[in-house]
Design goal:
Length: 534
């Protein structure tokens, strides 16, 4: 089979991949965007489980490079559901005529750096091969499902599903005995959605969550007119805030100067907004100061407890052993209320872990829970998982997966030393999921990568690689920021703790979206200082 020669290969046809394809193609490069899925959308294609929807306000979760795109599309809800999000990406692909350069049902198997030619030799699982000067991963931080194995799993005769690989045709759960393993953001969406329809619902919980009540509502024409008027300022201002949303946080020290009553007033105002504002829009000390975090934690516990009728169930559903915000904070609609239903049962698998599968269900603490369907809402191998599952080999055949098994490293989350011309959007140690409104962060990173490639080409150079010194400098800064927070004191997927044997490091940069953008802009303005360009 002949080798196809292109300028750039973009892997992933979601938020970042579609924009990266557009930017490079607009600059005159030959680009192919591949995706293993049969349709575009990335995460929003695979995650079509019941209840899947945004937890970023819809009017901030879109592209900002075109005012026409922004004005012509109207979201139906404040927090759009998965089918509408997929329609949005198809709208964008149609408007920009991206389809001719997208190869679907194409899963990359390997990519090997060819030093003499300064190209990536890329092979798909079906045997198709390319030579690409630039390899750009847009596979997302949360795209490699974590599917834990339990003893005797093959013995179960019912249906097993993972939320990240939900059947596209859907599945009828009405009248079924259903188990859900995992109560993170995804599990919460599933549980609150299917509870009224299933015969029995068993929720296998290991770690309870501080979920925030979502304030969702239809968007009116008046709303659309308002947000269209905000486009000129929002397209710039979102990149300057802490989380990439339309709200910001005050300077460090403001919270300490306030009284407890004043801080609680801020929390109450943000809580009433019904968004992630109560997490990344109050004041930074919530994630850094133990006393202030304890105050916020108790505030949220007091909001949750009245929603749960049974005090014993409430004790299990409300976190006591970690602080608010140190785990991913989900939004919910009727999650806690679901446990007031007679057909919904909470099973504590922290106290008594799942023992094994049986032909008819799960065994926990010597008791069999009979199930027709078992749903794994067990999250992802975040940050590194997607790229590590490919065979990526850089200088001298170094394996990226093996490197990250020893130590999770990157430079700005955008390149890895030893892997020239490999760029990573939402790579480890960049701002990403939950600590950043993803469309804000992804577009900023795509723009930086595009600028880097165009700078190289303008200089007549063929390759770019982060220096070892620059990488160490970034890791040191990243770790100092991480250690200044309470996040490292909690075992969560943020630190890779959900994957056995994964090196411990905070996977997302938490210094703030605006700070990160300024750092990236400084590197760019100084001709990509710290990166070897040859």
């Amino acid at each position: 089979m002949s080798v196809i020669t292109i300028d750039a290969m973009v892997v992933g046809a979601g938020v970042a991949g579609l924009y990266q394809l557009h930017r490079l193609r607009e600059a005159g490069l030959t680009v192919t965007c591949v995706d293993a899925a049969p349709d575009i959308g990335g995460t929003w294609h695979w995650n079509c489980y019941p209840g899947a929807r945004l937890d970023s306000p819809s009017y901030t979760y879109q592209y900002w490079f075109s005012e026409d795109l922004y004005n012509e599309w109207e979201w139906s809800e404040r927090f759009a559901a998965q089918p509408e999000i997929k329609r949005y990406f198809k709208y964008v692909a149609n408007k920009l005529d991206l389809w001719p350069d997208i190869a679907l049902n194409t899963r990359i198997a390997s990519a090997v750096w060819q030093e003499e030619q300064s190209v990536w030799h890329i092979t798909s699982e079906c045997g198709k091969t390319w030579h690409a000067r630039y390899l750009i991963s847009c596979m997302g931080m949360l795209s490699a499902p974590n599917a834990p194995l339990f003893p005797n799993q093959d013995a179960f005769t019912g249906t097993v599903l993972h939320t990240a690989r939900w059947p596209q045709e859907g599945i009828d759960l009405s009248g079924k005995r259903v188990g859900v393993v995992g109560v993170g953001a995804t599990g919460i969406q599933v549980i609150q959605t299917i509870a009224p329809d299933v015969e029995q619902l068993y929720v296998f919980q290991r770690t309870p969550q501080y979920a925030v009540k979502m304030n969702n509502h239809p968007l009116t024409e008046k709303d659309h007119e308002f947000w269209r008027s905000q486009y000129p300022t929002m397209r710039h201002s979102l990149h300057t805030t802490f989380g990439g949303f339309e709200w910001n946080v005050p300077e460090v020290g403001v919270a300490a100067a306030m009284t407890s009553e004043e801080r609680l007033k801020v929390l109450e105002d943000c809580w009433q907004d019904g968004s992630l504002k109560v997490w990344v829009g109050t004041y930074p000390e919530v994630l850094a100061d133990e006393a202030i975090n304890a105050e916020a934690s108790e505030f949220v516990r007091a909001k949750i407890r009245p929603r749960i009728n049974d005090p014993a169930v409430a004790d299990k559903l409300i976190p006591q052993h970690y602080g608010f915000g140190t785990y991913r904070v989900p939004l919910e609609t009727n999650y806690y209320d679901a446990f007031n239903r007679e057909n919904v049962h909470l099973v504590d698998v922290k106290a008594h872990p799942i023992e094994a599968f049986t032909p008819h269900g799960l065994m926990v603490d010597g008791q069999e829970y009979a199930l027709d369907v078992l749903i794994f809402a067990t999250g992802f191998d975040a940050g590194t998982g997607a790229l590590s599952r490919l065979d990526i080999r850089g200088v001298n055949g170094q394996s990226l997966g093996e490197l990250w098994q020893r130590d999770i490293r990157s430079t700005l989350g955008l390149q890895v030393h030893g892997f020239p011309n490999l760029f990573t959007v939402a790579g480890p140690l960049a701002p990403s999921t939950a600590f950043c409104n993803m469309t804000t962060c992804l577009q900023q990173q795509v723009d930086w990568i595009t600028d880097a490639i165009l700078f190289m080409r303008a200089q007549g150079k063929s390759q770019m690689e982060a220096s070892a010194e620059k990488e160490e400098e970034w890791i040191k800064h990243h770790d100092e920021v991480a250690e200044s927070t309470l996040l490292m004191s909690t075992n969560s997927w943020y630190t890779g703790a959900n994957i056995e044997g994964k090196p411990r490091r905070l996977l997302s940069y938490v210094g703030g979206v605006g700070v990160y953008k300024d750092i990236c802009e400084d590197v760019r303005a100084n001709d990509f200082e710290g990166f070897h360009i040859s």
